[in-house]
Amino acid sequence: MTTILLRTAADLHARARTGRRATVMTMGALHEGHATLIRAARDLAGAGGEVVVTVFVNPLQFGEGEDLDRYPRTLDADLELAGRAGADVVLAPSVDEVYPGGEPQVRISAGPMGERLEGAARPGHFDGVLTVVAKLLHLTRPDIALYGQKDAQQLALIRRMVRDLNFGVDIVGVPTVREPDGLALSSRNRYLSAAERRTALALSGALFAGRDRHAAQEALRARAREVPATHARVEALNALGESRAAADAHAVATAGGPEAVRTAARQVLDGAARLTPPLTPDYLALVDPSDFTEIGDDFTGEAVLVVAARVGTTRLIDNLPLTFGTLGAAS
What reaction gets catalysed by this protein (predicted)? Predict the structure, then answer.
């Protein structure tokens, strides 16, 4: 399909609009993860709707010493990928278009949730993210906006902003897209050398170890619930020759929970810290997605296992959702 490149919101607003508009916000350097977002937007907008992809490297969300100047700019390739994925428009505004008159004096504050984890590691980052997201929502005026679940804390904050400030837009999260070896797709992956990339696999490896530990715990708990807690239970297990297995299952289930998930993930990161080149973790946490605080041992419901680390000069993040209190791990 033919994808139109626009530079100003006025040009976008001048287009005849029918059906629903879906916006996908990017900083460019598009890859298959972005293409997945655009395809999901196409499905939600429908044949009669419109998909708008924004390409804007937002200076407000880069802290001192971060890679604003180094961040890849590949607009021609971005336009081609966006078109193949189903975008009608790529809006690539200048800094002056988004921030007329210079940096905004009034900004969105991310609040306490924006000061945890990524916010603690990158002070002010989420204020810059929410400010540009708010502006781009106003500039593109979508019915739906889609964001990747890979940036889990960012997605949670955008949802909170839209709810708290009464934005008239539906926010849709799209699952993380991974390489065949498990590494989450990111524009920053291109900075990694071959050796650094091998080390970087510890991020997804840690998440998968936590997920597998959680799945084993939930399966053992389900098994323990299958036999009534009576004298008949002991007799039944003995008859099956499973008394030792049942005892082991009970011990594992009792001693498990969120802390066991953290421990399994942390062991992978500790091993990667001894590799050449080494992995340098920033944080590993198992959090409630509503506020990104650590969950306790009695937690039930949806949680997110999140990790951030550096390999060489490249900083990467990843996460995996888990469900506590029901059989099996979440996606």
Answer: (R)-pantoate + beta-alanine + ATP = (R)-pantothenate + AMP + diphosphate + H(+)
